[in-house]
Amino acid sequence: MQDKIELRKISHHFDTTAEQIILFRDLALEIKTGEIISIVGPSGAGKSSLLSIAAGLEKPANGSVHFNIDGSEVDELALRANSGFIFQQFHLMPELDALSNLALPLRLKGNRNAFNIAAAWLEKVGLQDRAKHRPHQLSGGEQQRIAIARAFVSEPRFIFADEPTGNLDMKTSENVAGLMFDFARDSGCGLVIVTHSMRLAMLADKSLQLSDRKLEAIK
Amino acid sequence: MTPFSLILENVRHDLRASDGKLAIMTQAALIFFLLTLSLSSASVQQYLAKNLLQMLGSDLVIEQHGTLTAEQEAKIRAAAPKVSKTELVGITLTHGPNWERVQLKQVDDAYPLQGTLMVGSSPAAEKTPAAKGPGIGEIWLGPRLATKLEASVGDQISLAGTAHTVTAILFHEPDRIMEGHSVAYRAMIKAGSAAPDAFDTSGRRQRFLIEADTEARTSLEAWTKENLPAATLIKKQGGRHPLAGFWKRTENFLGLASVILFFMAAVAMDMTNRRWLVQMRYRLSLYSSFGISSSTVLTMAGLQWFIGFMLSLGVAGIFTVAAHYFIVGELQAFFPGIEGGWSGDAVAKTVMLTFGLLLALQVPALIQLKRASILDLIRSAPEGAYTWLRLLWGLIAVSGLAAAYSDNLLLTGLMLGAIGMALVLMIFLTWATVAVGDKWGAGRAGFVPFAFFFMRQRLFAKSAQVLGLGLCALLLLFTLMLMRDLSGMMESYARHHDGNLLVSEAQSDQMADIEAWAKKTGSDFKQLRPFVSAKLIRVNELALADYMKKPSDTLSTLKRPIRLSWSEQMPTNNTLSGGTWWPSDTRDWQQISTEPEVMTDLGLSYGDTLTYQINGRSYSFTLVASHSYKPGGGSITFWFQVPTAARAQIEADTRFMGSMELPETAWSELAALWQQHPTLSLVSLRELTERLDNMLGLVIKLTSGYAAMVLLLAMFVLIASSKGFEADDQRKNGLLMSMGLKRGDCLKLSTYDWAITAIIAATGAVAGTWIAGQLMYEAQFGLAYKPDPLWIGGTIGLMVMAVCGVGVLTCMRSLTTSVRDLLAT
Ligand SMILES: Nc1ncnc2c1ncn2[C@@H]1O[C@H](COP(=O)(O)OP(=O)(O)O)[C@@H](O)[C@H]1O
Ligand SMILES: [Mg+2]
Question: What is the mean pLDDT of residues B731-758?
Fold first, then answer.
């Protein structure tokens, strides 16, 4: 049975002292493993919030979220244990070298083979000769390649990427996005990617646009 | 690969960063200091307890200055089955050209009652027990004395005209405890071995060692209190060591010192924590983005902290061992035979308390870490809301633990009160300054208004910084001031004398010989004042011990007989500082004048009645005036002076004190004078200053060690505070520069910012110090509180400069990095 995240009739808003910022209303979304979904939309539309709700980091103001893993409904903590993240700011540990950064999730989960697996993944992203380099010695594109490998290395069911190419130039973006899509297809996980780039969005299996508090399919 | 190896790796990475190092160093410094303190103090207490049990030499000791009457002595002997009478007297022993001031003990056949004498044939020889003291015509010398006099067993020493043979080197007397922390040279003869009137001096003491059952002890105790008010009585069971009072005062100071260090360390820890927290939060959010549960993540953070603590403990432990043995070595001079043992209790208590303190400081951080979330990595995390909670919690935790650690609740309370008031003042000042400054600057252009504007934006962060620095400055200032005043007080004992030889005591019949000797050798008398030996026993009909409960130097001096002098007119080296001096030919002899310090320390006022015991009789005087020392006209001055008319009423021998100027050739003639009059007490000033210097040296060594510790922690606070705010500074500078400000302008802005911070902190520190001084000086240390505005101003100036200097340096560094940062993105 396929693992699945279901958002039903969710609404979300932020209350500030001056006004209420309404992000979206009565929105539905289904995310399955083996599928790549892209979300586009103007800045401030609520894409990051939607991603956080889907990943179980935040609760929506209204509506319900359901996580199905291995045929049974689980809570957000169980989902978290089975998901990975890719961030706009890369967020590599500055004090660790490339290989250690990659090995980190495995070591945290007590994998005794962490460094060997990490070394293999480093080769997959073509950075085997930069293993001993620390993040500040790497370019943005190289850092993001490591961050992507890091998200995939512990084989999660879902991966959430918030504008992963937002800090990169066009050419690097395509290279990085290509890697991400290849890995997702190889591993069969579900990938949700929030992006500004229409071109990138169109490469996904399914593309959605968040604007005017609504989510519409554009592909 | 397990998470544990990862924790170790994290610790290693953190240690490589300056924050981690700083945190460990602060912790280690605190643990080191507290451990050393409690170990040394446990050693002293252990020593005192053991000393009392083993070294009293009897069940009960009664000691009296002067001599007891035959009836009094008979009463004591009748009350107990076994009594040994010893007499102690300060004399000068001569051997060839060498001479030395010596504490001579004359013992009877019953001596020693309990315990054994240890003797040998040379200072380096093996110690063997002796059942009895020396026989007639024999003298035993202490090992240091024998060396000093270059005398060995078999040599002859003349004592008041009677020849004595050195028959042994005296290593140990079982009633040693009675000497307290005296390091005087010691010798022993048989009572009656020299002419009985050879040792007539005011410094003479009689000591009765008594072996008795409980009943006899109780009745003797009551009898002594009634009939010998000037006597000291020490008992083995349930008794207090004679040094306990002295040590209590020292402990008061040490207790306060630890409380101060607790706070210093807390401030430094809080400041390093701020940054550690940001880093930990980031690390933990990332870990949870890998799907690790938050409880695992928190356990990791807790373990990591614990490893850091153990590391600090290890580092501190090594230093403690060294410091402990060093301090015990230094204390040998005061507590002969003290041992540098390891008191498990003291170590455990201190380690537990520091652990508790550091953990308590960590609690708010752990709570914040619990809130770390992946969301922080998507959007930037909010900060600041918990700052106040954290500060408040820190303050409460530290106060509670400080109170638990220190035995002196009152002192701790006073210090905490002063700190609290200073903190409130600083918070108020920060807010007021910033609010007023911002209002004032609202319609103005320029850097100062802009600086205020910025401070207002960062009011919370700013307040935390001001409070930290202010608290640190307060503690530093107070400590330095207290130490300066304590050592100043000691130094003031060393008054400037004129003449090079002090006649500290001469009897009337010796005066003729001294004068003849002076004439012969061409020496000059500079000053000569008469006195009788008197012991203050009652104030306003209350026994001195009941009247004065808190320890002070004055009180400990007054426990021994003092010198009471008389004079018609105000002596030339005194001035009147209060009350009225008697007219020159007054007949009302029951009047007395004292020094203002004595009045303050004892809480006396004019009209009080002081009762003295002089040569076994009581005499009362009414306090009418106070006099203080005035330089010029000689150095000899007395604490207590009465009208000349009183002399006729007092039945006691007149003694003299004075100073002489000896030509270089006269020094070698001194031995002849002493051979004639061994009790004649002459002190060469070289020797006097040497003794004081030794004493001062120890005090200065100990206090400078402490000052170094406080300064070290203050430095940690300063570094932590500037580092903690470096990120803020960098962001601000980057922003300002992107808006077209020049680097010099940024620097100027930062300087104003730091100067305002430092000045507010300094004001709080001065106010806090003043409050603390008012509250504590008199009550706890027996010192008059007279702050020196120049000194405080100077110290504060230095602190403000140091803070600004470090602040500006950090800013300059952050300026260069922010330029690079701007290029990088
Ligand atoms: N904690 C918050 N409090 C108030 N408003 C918020 C908060 N987080 C986000 N917002 C607002 O919600 C809106 C959507 O934010 P976000 O989901 O980050 O949008 P996007 O990722 O599409 O740019 C923005 O206008 C933002 O200002
Ligand atoms: Mg966003």
Answer: 78
Give domain status of residue A46, yes or no.
Answer: yes
Using most ligand atoms within 8 A of CB, pick from A49, A58, A193, A209 the residue to mutate for ligand 1: A49
Side chain identity, residue B156: Q
Interface contact A77-B291, CB threshold 8 A: no
From the CA of A83, how many Å to the nearest CA of chain B?
Answer: 6
CB A196 within 8 A of CB A27: no
Is the residue at A15 inside a domain?
no
Rg (CA), chain B: 33
Residue B492, pLDDT > 70, answer no
CATH number at residue A137: 3.40.50.300
Query: Is there a contact between A105 and B291 if contact means CB atoms under 8 Å apart?
Result: yes
The ipTM assigned to this model is 0.88
Predicted pLDDT at B496: 46
Q: Which residue has the higher pLDDT, B145 or A67?
A: A67
A7: in domain: no
Q: How far is A117 from chain B (nearest CA, A)?
A: 12
Query: Which residue in the set B283, B290, B375 is minimally distant from A58, CB to CB?
Result: B375
The answer to whether position A159 is within a domain reads yes
d(Cα B776, Cα B773) in Å, to the nearest integer?
Answer: 5
A26 Rama sector, left if φ>0, alpha if ψ -120 to 50, beta otherwise:
left
> Encoding tokens for residue B306?
């614990």
pLDDT, greater one: A144 or B80: A144
Range B691-707 average pLDDT: 68
- Residue B278, CA distances (Å) to A93, B281, B290, B694 in order: 13, 5, 19, 52
**Residue B632: predicted pLDDT:** 62
Question: Which domain does A183 fall in, by range?
Answer: 35-59+75-217
> With pLDDT > 90 as the criterion, what percentage of chain B qualifies?
7
A118 Cβ partners below 8 Å, 6+ apart?
A99, A100, A102, A103, A106, A153
Ligand 1 binding pocket includes A48 (Cβ within 6 Å): yes
Confidence band, pLDDT 50/70/90 cuts, at residue B825: very low
Domain boundaries, chain B: 1-56+250-407, 61-235, 408-499+688-825, 524-661
The minimum-distance atom of ligand 1 relative to the CA of B378 is 18
Q: Which residues pair with B207 in a beta bridge?
A: B63, B86
Total number of domains constituting chain A: 1
| Min distance A153 CA to chain B CA atoms (Å) | 10
Per-residue confidence (pLDDT) for residue B241, from 0 to 100: 56
The answer to whether the CB of A209 is under 6 A from ligand 1 is no
Q: Is B319 exposed, middle or buried (0-12, 13-18, 19+ CB in 10 A)?
A: middle
pLDDT value at B1 more than 50: no
Contact: A83, B292; criterion CB under 8 Å: no
**Nearest Cα residue to atom 18 of ligand 1:** A48
